[in-house]
Records
---
Amino acid sequence: MIKIFDSWDSSYKSKFGALKKGESCRFSVRIPKETKNDLPPIMVIFRVGFKERFLIMEETASNDEYTVYSVEYTPTNAGIHYYYFTVVCSEKREFIKRKGCNEGVFGDGGMFQLTVYEDDFTTPKFLKGGIIYQIFPDRFCKSGEVHDNVPFDRIMHEDWYELPYYKPDEKGVIRNNDYFGGDFKGIIQKLDYLKSLGVTCIYLNPIFEAHENHRYNTANYLKTDPLLGSNEDFKMLCEKAHEAGIKIILDGVFSHTGADSIYFNKFGRYDSVGAYNSKESPYYSWYTFTNYPDSYECWWGFNTLPNVNENNESYTNYICGEGGVIDYWLSLGADGFRLDVVDELPDEFLDNLRIAVKRNGPEKIIIGEVWEDASNKISYGIRRRYLIGSQLDSTMNYPFRDAIIGYILGMDSKDFENRIMTILENYPKPTIDVLMNSLSTHDVERAINIFAVGSCEGKTRDWQAQRALSPEEYELGKKRLKCAMVLQFFLPGVPCIYYGDEAGLDGFKDPFNRKCYPWGREDKELIEFTKLLAKIRRRCCIFSEGELKFLFSDNEIIVFSRICREKNSGAVIILNKGPNLRRIWRNSDIARKFEFYEIIRGKLDGEALEIPPYDFAAIMISKNCEMN
C-alpha cells in the first residue's frame, strides 16, 4: 500500500521535527496514479490567528504506482504552525490529513504540527549529556549543625527514618510543620557521593524561608530558610558544588506567596506591614482582594497561598528587575531556576523572567513545570509559547515519564514509540537536549512503588502509610525500576534522579514520597547499577545530542540507536523488560544494522547476544565512543 505522507520519514519531510525560523524544509506527498488527480496538490499551512498559506506543489518524481509532488517551505515567523494537503482527484477535492501520529491519509483526520522556533534560540551546554539529581532539602542529609533563628513553632523529628507526619490536627488541618533537619552543609557532605553517581546538576526544591516543610509557601524571597542554613551557607554550597563540577538549580515559586510571609503577614509573624495588614502596604498591589482583608484570590483555593499579580509592575521589578530576586540568587552561585506551576505564570512575566536570567549569562537555565506536551499547551484559554525561544529552555518531561512507566507495565511498544517520537517531533532540538527526564518527583508516587504494586490512586493516607512493600514486591519493583532507568538514561534529554530512587527509597504520594534518604540502609546494588548507567552515558556525545531511532520492539524487548552523524559515533541499546532470556542473533535483521564494536553490557555467546531478564545491553558501534 502506498504511503501518502509520513512526517517522520525524511523522504516526505526532509528535516525531522521542529524548524528554526528561516530554515528551509522540503515536504513531499505520493499521490497514487489510480486517483487521477487533475491538478498538483496544495500544501495548506497556517498559524492560529493568521491567514492560511497555500503552497502549490510540483511534480518531482514518478513511477507506475505514484507521482511525487514536493514543495519547499521556509517559515519566517516563530510559533506553532499546522499543515495538511489537499488535491483535486476526478473533479473532487480530497484532503490529506494526519492519521495516528505521523501518517498522512486521504479523508478525515487531524492536522500536522510544525513547531518553528527563533533562529537564535540556544540552551545551556552544561546540562547536555549530564545527570540531574533532585533534592527535597529537608530530607536528604542533616549535617547536625545547630542553626540560628529557627521559628519556635516547628516540630523536629528525632528519628531520621520515621514517617513524616501525615494526619490532620484537631482542626482537620494538615500543618506540614514537622521537619527532619536536612540542610545545605549536609548536601555539601554528600557531594562526593553525588559525583560518584555522575551527577552534574542538583535541582533543589524550594530553599527560601517558609513555614511549611515543602517551602512552596514563600515567606521571604531574599532569605534562605533558617533550618537550611544562611545565605552564606548556600553560597558555600554553590562554590563547593562547582568545584566538584556540579551546577545548582533553584525552585522558583512565583505564582503565589505564603499568607505567613513578610509580603502578606496574615498572622503577624513579621514586623513588616503586609498586604493583609494595610492597604497602604507596599505589597498590597501584589494581591487581589474581593472583600478586604479576609477574602482574596489564592492558589487552588488554599487560603494559606495567596496568588500574586505577576504582571504588577512592583512585583515584576521585585522578582525580575535589576538587582531583584533572580539577580540576587544567581549572584550567589545558582545556575538557573525550575519554575513551579509555570502554566499560571503569564507570558509577559515569563518574558521578563527570561531577560532577567539570561542577562546573567547564556549558561543560566530556565526549566518549567509542565505536565503535558509543552509545545502546544493551552492554559486558561491562552496558547502558550514556552518553547519558541523567548521563555523556557526546557520542561519537566512528564510525557516521557508516563510513556516509560506505561511501557514497563505493559503498554504496547508501538504506542510507547509514538509517544516518544511525538514529543521529539514537536519540541525544538535545543530543548530536547536539556529535557528533565524524571521517573519520580515530589508530586507523584515513587516509581518503585508503581512498579511493585501499581498506583495508590483512591487510597487513603492511612493506607499509604501502612502499606509497606513485601520483599517480593520490592524485588519486582526494583527490576522494573532498573529497566525504566535504562530508558531514562539513554533516551534524548537528561535523566533526573529523585533523591533516594537510586538507593531503593520507596513511598506513595506526598508526604510518603518525601521520606528521608536511607543513609546506612541503601540498596547498594541499585546504586552500582545507577553508576554503570552514568558511566555509559558519559562515553561520548551520542547521549547529549545524538538522534534517536527505534530499530525493533515487542512486548518484552526494545532496540534503539543513538547516532551522532557529525562525529561519526553511535550506540545501540537493547532493553529486555521481560522475565525471559532474549537473544539477538548476529545474522538477524536487527544486528545487521550495526557493528558490534564494543559490548558494555550483555553477553556474546557465539553468534548470539544474550540479554538476561530485566536487563539490557549497550553496544558501542563506533570507535569514537571512547571513555571521557
---
Amino acid sequence: MESRTTTAGVKLPDDLERLLAASHNDPFAYLGPHRETRDGVSGVVVRAFLPQAREAEVIPADANAIRMVRAHESGLFEAFCPQVADTFPYQLRLKLRNGSEQVIEDPYRFLPVLSDFDLYLIGEGTHLELHRKLGAHLHRVDGVSGVVFAVWAPNAKSLSVIGDFNDWDGRRHPMRHRGGSGVWELFVPDLGEYCIYKYEVRSNHPPFLSQQKADPCGFYAEMRPKSGSVVFNIDRYQWNDHNWMEKRSTKNLLDQPMSVYEVHLGSWRRDPEEGNRFLTYGELAAQLIPYVKEMGYTHIELLPIMEHPFDGSWGYQTLGYFAPTSRFGTPEEFMYFVDQCHQQDIGVILDWVPAHFPKDGHGLRHFDGTALYEHDDPRQGVHPDWDTLIFNYGRHEVRGFLLSNALFWLDKYHADSLRVDAVASMLYLDYSRLPGQWIPNRYGGNENLEAIEFLKRFNELAHEQPGAFTAAEESTAWPGVSRPVYLGGLGFSFKWNMGWMHDMLQYMEKDPIHRKYHHNNLTFVMLYAFHENFILPLSHDEVVHGKRALLSKMPGDYAQKFANLRLLYGYMYAQPGKKLLFMGGEFGQWNEWNADSGLDWNLLDFDSHSKLRRFVQDLNYLYRSQPALYEQDFNPSGFEWIDFHDWSSSLICFLRRARNPHDFVVFACNFTPVVRENYRVGVPEEGYYRELLNSNSEIYGGDNLGNGGGIMAESIPWHDRPYSVNLTLPPLSITVLKKE
C-alpha cells in the first residue's frame, strides 16, 4: 500500500491519510469488512474510523465479541475476524472518551441502496421521481433502521454527511461514489427523523477546498438564518381532499370561474402580541382559508413557499426546492393547509421559480466545486437584474432536477397549479443584457433553445396530472405561451396579461380630465385578448418599490379614490380572462405592501374600507353566478363592444355572452366624475334589464345614483342594436345589467 509522510514525520497509508483529510472518494474500499488472510488463516478485517471512542469491539450476530486494535491514534480501529463470510451482520461496541458505552451499526458493512437503473435515469435526466431517490430518506436495510443519504455531485473529490450525530466531522461519514452517475450515497444506521445534516463537499480542483452544503433535495430545513437540512418523513400524512381531487380532474378551468387571491403568507397577518411573529400553517388554515372562502375567491396563489434564505426576496430566491419553508411550520403542517383549502373548495396555486437561484454559499452555487446547476460563463449563468444564477437547462441532470421538482409539488403536496415566475428571462438569452453581454444560440438567435424545450416538457408533464394547470408570468409578445406544445406553443394553461395591467393602471392613475386622450388604454387589449388564455392580474409587483398601493394610485379626493378603485376592479371582472388580486387590495391598503409586517387590518374599522371589501366580495359572487362572465373567456363570441367611440366622455359599453347566446350581461363604464343622465345604450333584446351591480351604490360607499334597480328596454334602435336602455351613469362607476 502506498504511504506518505505527514508533517510530523509519521508515514500513513494513503487511505488513512485521505480519510483524515476528509478527501477519500472510495471509503468502502478501506472501511468496513474486507477479506484477508493472516498467518495462513482466512478471515475478514473490520476497519472503522471512530475518533469518539477510547476502545471498540466487533460484536458478530452469532459469535463472541472481538476486541478492536487502535491502528492509529486518530481513531482508526481494526479487528481480524477469522473464519467468517465476506459479509456478516455485526455491530460495534464503543467505550467513549467520557466513559459511557454505545453500541452502533457500522455504515460501511451495508451494500448500496440505489439501483443501477435509478442511476441511469438520473444521469439521463428522465427520473421524474427524483425526490424518492436523492435527498435523505428514512429506510430499513437488512432489518436495520436509519437514513439513506444520496446527492448528485459528479465533480467532487470527496463527499461526507455531517451533522450533530457526528459532531459535524467530515471524516466520520464519507459517502460512496456511484461511478459515472455522479451520485454519492450512504446509509447511516440508527439515525431518525428531525436529524439535522449537511453535505461536506470537497472540490476536485486545487486547492481542494471543502464546502458545507444544504441538501438540494431535502424535504425540510432549519429556520433561517440557520441553513441545515432536516430529515423528515413526508409520506405519512393522511389526505382528506379526495372529493376535491376527483372533482378537479373532471373540470376544464378554461370555462370555469377563476378568481385568485394572491398571498404572501409571511405578511398576510402577523401576531403582534407575540413580537410580530409569523402565523403558522395551522393558524393560516384557521384564519386565511375562511376569509378567502367568505370573500368568494376560487383559488389562493402563494408567493413561493419553497425554502429561501432571505425574507426580502419574498421566496423568489429559492434554495430548498423540495422543502416548504420552515418559517410557518413543518412539511406536514403545510400539507394540512393545502388539504384544508381543498376541503373548503379553494384551489392552491404555488409560485415556482425555475429561472434562477441565489448565490448563498450553502446552496446550489458551485455545488461540487464547479458550475454544476448553473452556467460557468457569466454571460449565460448570472442574472444581471437580481445578481442570481441561471440554471443550465441544457444539462440532463439539471433539467431532471427541475422537472422532478415540479411534479413533486403537484403530487406530494396536491398543488393544483404552478405559476412559473420570470418566464421572459428564461426565453431570451439577451434578457436585460446589452450587446456583448450574452451568447447567441447555435443559430445566432437570442432564444434560449434549451429553456424553451424545458418549459414545453414541464407543461406536458404537469398536464398529465389530472386537473392540474400551469400559468406563466411572461411579459413579452412571445407567441403561443398558452397554446399546446403539439401546436407549437409553450404549453401553459394560462398567461398573465402584463400588458393589460400596465395599460389599465397607467390609465386609472391619470386625472379623469386627461383620460379622454388615453382612451386606447381601455380598448387596446381587445386587439389581442383572445391570442392567449389570459389571467388579468393586479399583483404584488404593482404595490411595492415606490409604485404605491392601488388606492394611493387613484386620483381625486378621498371619495373619488375609492370610486376609482371600485371602477378598476369592476372593469377587471367585466373583461375576458381570469382574475387575480393581491392581498390588501380588496379593502384598500393606503400603504405599499411591506413584507415585514401584516396587512393594515385596522382599516376595516373605517366605513370606506369595509364597504370596498364588500364590493370585492360581491364582485366575486356576481362573477361566479354569471356564466357569461367566465364560460367564453377565450372565445371572441363571448365579448361584444356596444360602443367604444365615446372617448370624449371616457365612456365605454360592452356585453359578455355565455355559450347560450341569450345569456348575456351588459356593462356601462363611466371613467369621469360627471353624472351622465339619459345616456342611451343599445341592447340586443327587449325586456326588463335588472341592475346586477352598481359600484356607486351606498352599500359600497357611493352616492346611490343609478337606475332604481333596473330599467325597461325600449324599441329604439341604438348602437346598431334593435333596442336600447336609457341609463343614468353615476360618476366613476360601472353599471352591470342583465335582462330578466
---
Amino acid sequence: MSVTNFEMNAVLSAIKCASEKYNLDMSPFYEKISGLEESSLYEQSLLYALNQISMEKPDWTFVAANLYLHELYRSVSEIRGYPHEKKYGDLFSLISELTQMGIYSKELLQDYSKEEIQLLGKEIDPDKDHLFHYIGLFLLADRYLAKDYDGNIYELPQERFMIIAMTLMRNEQKTRRLSYVKEAYWALSNLYMTVATPTLSNAGKSFGQLSSCFIDTVEDSLDSIYLNNWDIARLSKDGGGLGIYLGKVRALGSDIKKFKGTSSGVVPWIRLINDTAVSVDQLGQRQGAIAVYLDVFHKDIMNGFLDLKTNNGDERRKAHDIFTGVSIPDLFMRKLEEVDERGRSIGQWHTFCPHQVKQMMGWKDENGSPLGLEDFYDEFDESLFTEKYEEAVKHPLLPRKTYRAMDIMARIMISQLETGTPFMFYRDEANRQNPNKHIRGRGYTSIYCSNLCTEITQNMSAATIIKEYKDEDGNIVIVRKPGDFVVCNLSSINLPKTVKANVLDKLIPIQMRMLDNVIDLNSISVGQADVTNKKYRAVGLGTFGWHHLLALERIFWESEEAVLYADRLYEDIAYYTIRSSMELAKEKGAYSMFEGSEWQTGKYFERKRYKTERWNQLIEDVAKYGIRNGWMMAVAPNSSTAKIGGSTDGIDPLYAVEYAEEKKNFKFMVTAPDLDHHTYNYYRKTRHQLDQIWSIRQNAARQHHIDQSISFNLYVCHDIKAKDLLNLHMEAWRQGLKTTYYVRSTSQSEMKECAACQS
C-alpha cells in the first residue's frame, strides 16, 4: 500500500516547523520517504531524522521531536476519540475519563467546576510542545505522562503541565486560584522550571506522593532499628529516596545489657536496609534508593563500613545496593594536615563506640538524656566537638581504636575510586550554617547527615516509643513521639531559559508557591515525616543548566569570571527566593519554628554579608512578617528532568559534546544544547578534562547563597594520584562546602542519578 496523502501531509506538517526554523536541507529526507509504505512511514522517518543528529547537525533533534509529537498526537487522539488534526482534546473529558478509571484523583473534579476546567483547557498551548528536544520529549512521554492500566498514554505534554498546575494550586483562594494556575502553567510550559520526579509523575493522580527524599535518624535500640526499616519500606514503596543516619548505633564488639562483646555492629543492620531497598521497589519501576551515613569517629568506620560496596572481602559483610556517606568534622580534616619534618602524615585519629561514650563520659542534655560525640559540633567561635573529642581521648578507660587519620582517608578514597562512594558530609559547616540551630542550641548537633543526593541539610532527630498498651477493645497500641524526619520538596530553575528571558523575578514567586503547596497537599505514608514537613515547611528550590548557561554567556568553565558569575547569579536567586517566602508568610503565616531562628534574628543575613539596600529592606520585612519556609534552597542532581528541559545536568559540567543514547530498539546521538560554532569552544572541555579546583571554587561561591546544600560531583581520571584526590577533598573542605556527592572516575561506568531527587 502506498503512502496516503493524509499520512504524507501529517508527516510533512510534523517536520515543517523545525525545518523552516533551523534552515535544514530536507531534500534527502523527501527522497527517502517518497517510496515508503504507510505502515512504516513514521518509524522510518523518525529513524532517518535521529540518524542525522550530530555535532554538525544538532538541530535535527527538533525534526525528530516533531515527528514523535505527530505520533503522540495520533495515538492519543485515537484512544480518546477526537480528530488527529486537533492535536489536543477536551481537558474536562480527559479528567473525567481518567478519574473514572481511578488514574486521576477525585479531588480535581471536586475542587474545580466544569466551567473552570474548560477555561483552563483554553490556556493549553500546543506550540509549546516544539520547545522539546527529542530526548526530553521521549523521557517525558515514556516516564511521566499518565497512562491507563494497559500502558496506553492518555495525556499529552501540555496536559501534564496543566494537571500539575491545577493540583498544586487547588487549595488557593478561589478569587486568585485560576490566575495562579495560569502562572504555574506558564512556568512549566515554557520550560522555565521543572518539578521533582515524584511531583512530575504523581500530581493529580490517585496514588504516590509528591516529595522527593527523606532522612531518618536511628537510635541505638532494636525498636528504633526495626521501626526505621518499616518506615523506609513504606516510603520506598511510594517512590521516595532515603538518607539514614546510623551514627548512634553501637559498634561491633560493644556490650548489650552489660554482656561483653555481644554487639554485631552496624553492618548487619545495613545489610537489612539493603534487602529492603531491593525488595520494596519504587512503584514497580526501580529498586529502592537508600544512603546510609556513619561518623568518621565511629568504631565501625574501618570495620566493614568503608568496604560495604567494594568487590573484595567477605560477601557476608557487603551491601552493594545501598550508598554510603561519611560524616566528617573539621578536626579530622585538620589531622590530615599534620605532618612531620619530612612531610609525612602523622595525625592520629581515634574511633569510639557511641554506646560506650554515653556510658562512660557522662555528658547529658538539659533533660538529663545522655549525649555522645555525634551530638556536638564546632561553631565559628566555640569548639565544642573538639573539646569533647579530646576529653574522650584522654579518658583512660574508654575503649577506642586508633589509626593514622591518613589511613582512614586512604580507605575512603580507595572506595570512592572503585564505587563512587562514600559521599562526604562536612558536619561542622552544615551545622554552623544552619538557620534553625535554635532548636537545640549552638554547638549541639541538629544535622547529623545529608540525604541520598547530598543536597538536603535539615534538623534531624529520632522518633521514640513512649508506651505500648492494650486499649478497651483489646487492640495493641504503640505510641510514638515523632522526631524530625526530614522531607525534601524540590523543584528547579532552568537557568539558560530563565536568564535569557530575564524572568527570574517573575518565576521564583510562583515556583515557591508551588513548592509550599506541596507540603499541604502531600500524602506521606509515614506520620512523623508529615509532622516534620508541616513543622518546618522546608523546600528546596534548585537549578540546572549551569554549563549550558556559561556557554551561552561565552564564559569558560575554568575562569575567575565563572566563579564571579556564580556568586552574582545565586545571590539574585537567594534574594528572590527569600523574598517570595516572606511574601507567602505575609499572606499565610510563618513556619511554626520561625521565632528564635537566624531568619528572625537576622544572624543568617549578617553571616552572608548581605548589606545592600535591597537586602536591608528584605531583612526588615522578614523580621516583621516572618518567612513561610524554614529552609528554601537546595540544588539537586537533575539529570532526566534537565533533559526534559533541554539543558545540562544540575551544576555539573557537560558529559560529552556528543554521545549516544540507547533505547530498547534503537540508538541515536545527543548533542550539547544550543550547540553551534560559538558555544562549542565553551563546551569543548568536558567533565573529566576540567580542572576540578575551578569546579570547587564555583560551587563555594554558589554555596555561600544556598541555605542547604548542593549535589556536587568530583570528576577524576582513574589513575589520579592519591595526593591529588586528597587535595580536592581538602580544597572542598577549606572552601566551605557542606557536602560532596560522587567521586566519578573514568574507570567507572556512568552512574545513574537518584531518580527521586531529579527536579
